[in-house]
């Protein structure tokens, strides 16, 4: 067996070590091309210097939260980002009769208080759904309390966003461009168990330039931007997300219909998991977006009277699908990636728990 041959295993380890060293040294440069998608929050909560001017517009004249595309990227990428937000699909909105599209500027303190009250009720229902699944599968109790707390904070902010976008008929464009700039008034009675979103992220990170190694969580790899490439931060986006509701619901087609089943798009029965194994090894060493509650949520329970809010099971198999024919499998358990706590309103981001350095840690 080749897998048990010590010489082959030694050759693989040596090759991997060389690749890791090359990528590790290149990661010390500060050029953006060496920064992968999990570098510090891109779109709505970038941890830039505290004195960053939030009013500086993008190339097209809009400001997107604390993220400044003109500062962070080339003018070409800034224009792409701005054009993407300005298309008909993000600007248009279907408002109830008698309502008009708002840009978020008309949101009052009373609106915020109502939204927080709504979010408090919804987050309790969300936690109840988690407890139902934990009662069935206690493996979820091993889920990181730190990550789970951040998830609840993120979901709380999403519920506030949902309420405001519904009440004010805010379209996708303004959900992505304007809502992240809104700060909760300091006198609002916000439950401190969750995120105090009137405060921006702290940038008080001290790195020793003479220290031989980066920190264990990947910080200080880049002295100018010490959070770049560190773990437990939001994935960086080159374009805003295209959620069907502009907040967190999975994308749909331009007609509003569900997208085709992944099994229809990838029908080749001759391809096995080995077809993507090497790519997965590389990707998982840099990006690790975990699922809600780990393995505790089973979206294919039969009967499944209570479906978890994060469930998106694959059920629409083709009639000749080999998996269904030979294994009688009618459902693939698919749980959404955990939401990243951006401490701001707006669309959902995803959490990356890996560092950006190719260090082969995921292989061990």
TrEMBL record:
Keywords from the UniProt entry: Membrane, Oxidoreductase, Peroxidase, Transmembrane, Transmembrane helix
A Gene Ontology biological process term: response to oxidative stress
Coiled-coil residues: none
Top-level lineage group: Eukaryota
GO molecular function: heme binding; peroxidase activity
Residues spanning the membrane: 7-26
PANTHER family to which the protein is assigned, alphabetical: LD42267P, OXIDASE/PEROXIDASE
Protein name, as recorded: Uncharacterized protein
Organism per entry: Dermatophagoides farinae (American house dust mite)
Native organism taxonomy: Eukaryota, Metazoa, Ecdysozoa, Arthropoda, Chelicerata
């Amino acid at each position: 067996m080749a897998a048990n041959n010590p010489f082959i295993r030694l050759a693989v380890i040596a090759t991997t070590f060389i690749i890791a060293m090359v990528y590790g040294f290149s990661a010390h440069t500060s050029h953006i091309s060496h920064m992968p998608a999990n570098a510090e929050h891109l779109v709505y909560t970038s941890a830039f210097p505290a004195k960053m001017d939030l009013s500086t517009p993008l190339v097209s004249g809009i400001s997107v939260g604390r993220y400044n595309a003109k500062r962070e990227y080339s003018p070409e990428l800034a224009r792409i980002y701005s054009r993407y937000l300005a298309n008909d699909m993000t600007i248009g909105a279907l408002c109830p009769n008698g309502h008009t599209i708002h840009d978020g500027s008309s949101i009052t303190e009373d609106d915020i208080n109502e939204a927080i009250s709504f979010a408090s009720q919804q987050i309790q229902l969300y936690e109840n759904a988690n407890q139902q699944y934990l009662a069935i599968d206690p493996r979820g109790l091993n889920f990181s309390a730190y990550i789970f707390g951040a998830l609840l904070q993120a979901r709380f902010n999403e519920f506030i966003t949902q309420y405001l976008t519904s009440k004010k008929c805010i379209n996708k464009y303004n959900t992505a461009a304007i809502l992240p700039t809104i700060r909760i008034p300091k006198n609002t009675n916000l439950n401190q168990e969750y995120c105090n979103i009137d405060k921006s992220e702290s940038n008080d990170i001290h790195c020793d330039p003479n220290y031989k190694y980066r920190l264990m969580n990947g910080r200080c790899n880049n002295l100018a931007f010490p959070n770049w490439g560190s773990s437990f931060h939001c994935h960086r986006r080159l374009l805003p997300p295209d959620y069907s509701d502009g907040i967190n619901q999975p994308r749909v087609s331009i007609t509003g219909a569900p997208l085709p089943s992944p099994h229809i798009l990838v029908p080749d029965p001759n391809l096995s998991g080995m077809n993507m194994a090497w790519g997965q090894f590389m990707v998982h060493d840099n990006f690790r977006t975990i699922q809600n509650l780990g393995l505790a949520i089973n979206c294919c329970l039969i009967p499944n009277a209570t479906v978890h809010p994060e469930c998106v099971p694959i059920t629409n198999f083709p009639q000749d699908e080999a998996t269904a024919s030979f294994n009688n499998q009618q459902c693939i358990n698919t749980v959404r990636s955990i939401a990243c706590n951006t401490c701001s309103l707006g669309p959902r981001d995803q959490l990356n728990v890996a560092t950006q350095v190719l260090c082969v840690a995921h292989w061990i």
